[in-house]
Design the sequence.
């Protein structure tokens, strides 16, 4: 999910977080006249990770010797009624209980029920409307369940189940046994596709046909984990927490439609023309984007196979995924290119968009953006695992699924780069690293915002480098946010975070925080090793916040408790100040003594740029430990002449709420 709606700036499609934060906002509120006092004992308190790690997770933040997680494999057979905008489907779920616990019941998520007029999500939708509400508008949504049956211990039965809002509980005739027991659930169901589905799915009318973007489209197993047992928070608007498994699914659509879906297409010979197959093969060997179906071909009947009874069945497979989504339309232009991954493996980047979006300043470059974003993150963090990556233009402004993302059809230039890079960045968080988005959105949105900064700085010799401009754009936005007394902290569940604060708390502050950790605290080498360790340890698993904190402390080799506390659990303000400059024995040739103060509750390492009257400039870096015994410090600099200026945080990278006291200037002696 991108920032733009989060900040209610809905008119600009697909803009990157950093850019949003840099929108000329209201002037920053002045810092309070008396900041809450700095307290070293509170900031460096020893009790943050003082409980032993559970045996399922190590004290060092890795999955433990007894770590387990359950698995859910899905076989989905769906048909799209394009005239009624309705999906009818059968889901066959094979659920494996790897836990050490007997499970007398299981929980599923029936997310389409958000769109029932009587849903909790509708009830919490403000009268004036809200991006996540649809039920309130009287749309006839929700999962219509036709049959629900189970197969357990060799017996097939009609399921005893109960639906409560977006959750469904199946009571089992006998418990699912620990240690690998399997339950098969078969559900026949149907639902109407909302026109605007909480900015996660929807429909867009274009001149050559409607674009259907379909997510949350099948009953999904809730996660049973070692932390909370069943995770049954309802779907109100926050994103998802899902187990991993393998998917095999078919989509029956009109023959003139093109379909993009998570994973790989298994039957190209059935659903593509010979020309499309040839061009696709060319694209799979090309670093330049190859057009598979040109804008001028969209309305040509010969550009698609005739199908059977005017219909075709697209067959996809997606391995080791926590979800699948798809999009279908007669209106799609299609292009693709090869992606080169670090192991030597190749994958395919592709884009589906209507002719209205087919401009060189817009979606004609989408595939290039997908390719560069994924190649960069694969090299920098962890190799992309799916064979295909698809970007779809449509009504959804920006939403991520494994191997496929939905971005706004109106996005162009840097906005399209930003939203594409962001949504595909989600393939790392939470698609590879499967954290709990419904409780901890900062672990996917924030970590993703961080990798987007580096990716944008890297893209095409800085073509959109302003989107990765931290000091110029992110720092002012976050500093403004810090000064807002009604602000939320990252460690807040999203349903509780004020909607206007979500962009700050989950995205910007977290992304900026990791950037500070990398640039100002650990340094890129130590940070990158620790962050890669976190990704590798928890790839396709379920880390908690403390697994992240513990891994960064352990692999980075630094007790960062003070940072986790001030940044993720509090909105402590930072105010570094230079107070006085004196000279050793009042003699500038013997060295200067610079006194500084930490006036807010937060602490950071100090960077001071020191200039002498003779022109000599030096940079002094002091570790955060100078603030462990209190809020004042004096350090010595070797000098040969009087100082002319001392500037703290000269690159303006820290969230200092009062820069007025960051600079000391010598009083002119000439008159
Ligand atoms: Zn997002």
Sequence:
């Amino acid at each position: 999910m991108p920032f733009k709606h989060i900040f209610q700036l809905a008119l600009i499609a697909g803009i990157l977080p950093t850019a949003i934060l840099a929108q000329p906002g209201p002037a920053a509120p002045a810092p309070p006249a008396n900041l809450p006092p700095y307290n070293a004992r509170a900031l460096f308190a020893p009790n943050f990770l003082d409980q032993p790690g559970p045996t399922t997770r190590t004290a060092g933040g890795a999955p433990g010797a007894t770590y387990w997680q359950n698995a859910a494999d899905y076989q989905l057979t769906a048909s799209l009624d394009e005239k009624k905008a309705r999906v009818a489907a059968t889901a066959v779920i094979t659920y494996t209980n790897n836990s050490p616990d007997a499970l007398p019941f299981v929980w599923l998520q029936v997310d389409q029920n958000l769109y029932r007029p009587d849903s909790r999500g509708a009830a919490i939708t403000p009268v004036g409307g809200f991006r996540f509400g649809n039920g309130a508008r009287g749309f006839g949504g929700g999962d219509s369940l036709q049959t629900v049956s189970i197969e357990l211990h060799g017996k097939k039965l009609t399921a005893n189940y109960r639906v409560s809002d977006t959750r469904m509980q199946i009571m089992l005739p006998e418990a699912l046994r620990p240690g690998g027991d399997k339950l098969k659930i078969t559900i026949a169901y149907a639902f109407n596709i909302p026109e605007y589905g909480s900015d996660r799915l929807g429909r867009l009318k274009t001149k050559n046909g409607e674009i259907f973007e379909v997510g949350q489209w099948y009953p999904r197993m809730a996660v049973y984990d070692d932390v909370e047992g069943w995770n049954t928070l309802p779907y109100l608007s926050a994103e998802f927490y899902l187990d991993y498994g393998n998917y095999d699914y078919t989509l029956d659509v009109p023959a003139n439609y093109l379909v993009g879906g998570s994973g790989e297409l298994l039957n190209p010979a059935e659903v593509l023309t010979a020309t499309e197959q040839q061009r696709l093969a060319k694209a799979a060997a090309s670093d330049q984007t190859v057009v598979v179906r040109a804008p001028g071909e969209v309305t040509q009947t010969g550009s698609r196979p005739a199908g059977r009874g005017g219909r075709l069945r697209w067959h996809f497979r997606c391995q080791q995924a926590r979800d699948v989504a798809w999009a279908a339309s007669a209106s799609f232009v299609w292009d693709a290119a090869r992606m080169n991954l670090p192991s030597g493996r190749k994958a395919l980047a592709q884009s589906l968009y209507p002719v209205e979006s087919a401009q060189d300043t817009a979606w004609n470059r989408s595939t290039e953006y997908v390719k560069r974003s994924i190649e960069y993150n694969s090299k920098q963090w962890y190799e992309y695992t799916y064979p295909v990556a698809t970007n779809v233009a449509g009504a959804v402004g920006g939403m991520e699924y494994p191997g496929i993302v939905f971005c706004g059809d109106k996005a162009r230039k840097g906005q399209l780069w930003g939203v594409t890079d962001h949504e595909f960045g989600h393939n790392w968080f939470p698609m590879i690293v499967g954290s709990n988005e419904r409780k901890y959105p900062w672990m996917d949105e924030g970590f993703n915002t961080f990798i987007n900064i580096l990716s944008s700085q890297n893209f095409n010799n800085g073509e959109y480098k302003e989107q990765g401009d931290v000091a110029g754009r992110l720092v002012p936005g976050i500093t403004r946010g810090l000064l807002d007394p009604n602000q939320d902290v990252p460690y807040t569940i999203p349903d509780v975070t004020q909607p206007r604060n979500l962009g700050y708390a989950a995205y910007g502050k977290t992304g900026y925080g990791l950037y500070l950790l990398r640039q100002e605290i650990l340094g890129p080498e130590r940070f990158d090793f620790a962050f890669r360790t976190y990704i590798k340890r928890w790839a396709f698993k379920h880390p908690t916040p403390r697994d992240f904190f513990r891994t960064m402390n352990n692999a980075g080799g630094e007790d960062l408790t003070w940072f986790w506390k001030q940044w993720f659990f509090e909105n402590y303000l930072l105010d570094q100040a230079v107070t006085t400059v004196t000279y050793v024995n009042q003699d500038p040739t013997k060295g200067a003594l610079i006194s500084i103060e930490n006036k807010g509750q937060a602490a950071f390492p100090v960077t001071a740029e020191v200039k002498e009257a003779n022109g000599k400039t030096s940079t002094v870096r002091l570790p955060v430990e100078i603030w462990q015994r209190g809020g004042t410090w004096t350090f010595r600099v070797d000098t040969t002449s009087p100082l002319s200026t001392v500037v703290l945080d000269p690159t303006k990278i820290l969230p200092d709420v009062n820069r007025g006291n960051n600079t000391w200037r010598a009083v002119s002696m000439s008159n």
Summary: The CA atoms of residues 391 and 399 lie 10 Å apart. The pocket of zinc ion is lined by residues 1-2, 422, 426, 445, 448 (CB under 6 Å). The two ends are 60 Å apart (CA to CA).
